[in-house]
């Protein structure tokens, strides 16, 4: 009985210590490890799903764009968006509109997951440093700081998933005369790794990263700034509370993407 009492006492003391430690972490604003893991998983899954859904939604346009870029100028099959989509539908059916989308999603889903998670963490880190620097605990990120957080996210996401982007590029440009005939993305990755070594997986990494810095940075900066403006100014009665509707968020994302296209891409 004595030993059972001792065990019960030790268990009670251990429980009290754990509760006290959790309370201390809560007061200091530090999340418990289990909550951190759950939060990370949620962020990664949300970013991955968002990337896959968005890529699938525009897959027909993405395929048509590539076909327009590589078609023979002496044998025009695709002449404009509407005609091109109709031609693909008529010759290849519904599945033809989404050909190659699986390979695209295999690259975009992890890229989007890492990108959104990295932006979230970079924003928190930059905000903490900014608040410490200004001495204002209520300070929020400026558009320039959001651009910096977005650029960090773009670099991390591009670096983490660049081998897939490289493999997609080789699959896109390969012909019957290519030295290697890749059957798919994972076959391309394994072949490059075996025949050319690990460094070959990152050929062209630097120009890709340089290009993605303004792209992702401006996207996130424009999107977050537009959201804040809508919530604070409530123009035309579009926003009634502190939460934006799904359609409003989609409109913000579209506007942010259009801002990047108009500002940074050549006409």
Fold and architecture overview:
This protein is globular. The protein has a domain at 101-264. 76% of the residues lie in helices and 0% in strands. The chain is built from 10 helices and no strands. The protein has helices spanning 2-27, 33-57, 59-70, 81-92, 94-97, 101-134, 143-173, 185-196, 205-233, 246-264. The protein has 267 residues and is an all-alpha fold.
Tags for this model:
267 residues
The Cα radius of gyration reads: 25 Å
Provide the helix percentage.
over 70%
Distance between the termini: 84 Å
Low confidence ranges: 23-35
**Mean of pLDDT:** 78
Number of strands: 0
Strand content: under 5%
Shape: globular
SS-based class: mainly alpha
Topology:
Blueprint: H1 2-27, H2 33-57, H3 59-70, H4 81-92, H5 94-97, H6 101-134, H7 143-173, H8 185-196, H9 205-233, H10 246-264
């Amino acid at each position: 009985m004595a030993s059972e009492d001792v065990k019960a006492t030790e268990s009670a003391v251990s429980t009290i210590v754990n509760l006290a430690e959790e309370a201390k972490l809560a007061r200091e604003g530090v999340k418990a490890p289990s909550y951190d893991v759950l939060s990370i998983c949620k962020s990664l899954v949300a970013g991955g799903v968002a990337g896959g859904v968005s890529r699938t939604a525009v897959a027909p346009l993405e395929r048509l764009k590539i076909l327009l870029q590589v078609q023979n100028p002496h044998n025009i099959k695709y002449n404009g968006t509407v005609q091109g989509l109709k031609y693909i539908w008529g010759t290849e059916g519904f599945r033809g509109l989404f050909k190659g989308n699986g390979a695209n999603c295999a690259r975009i889903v992890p890229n989007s997951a890492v990108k959104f998670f990295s932006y979230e963490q970079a924003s928190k880190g930059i905000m903490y440093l900014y608040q410490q620097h200004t001495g204002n605990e209520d300070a929020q990120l400026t558009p320039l700081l959001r651009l910096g957080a977005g650029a960090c996210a773009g670099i991390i996401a591009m670096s983490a998933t660049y081998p897939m982007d490289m493999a997609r590029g080789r699959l896109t440009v390969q012909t019957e005369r290519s030295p290697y005939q890749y059957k798919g993305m994972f076959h391309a990755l394994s072949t490059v790794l075996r025949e050319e070594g690990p460094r070959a997986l990152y050929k062209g990494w630097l120009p890709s990263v340089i290009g993605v810095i303004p792209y992702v940075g401006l996207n996130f900066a424009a999107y977050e700034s537009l959201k804040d403006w809508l919530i604070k100014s409530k123009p035309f009665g579009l926003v009634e509370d502190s939460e934006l509707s799904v359609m409003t968020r989609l409109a913000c994302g579209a506007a942010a993407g259009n801002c990047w296209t108009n500002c940074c891409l050549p006409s």
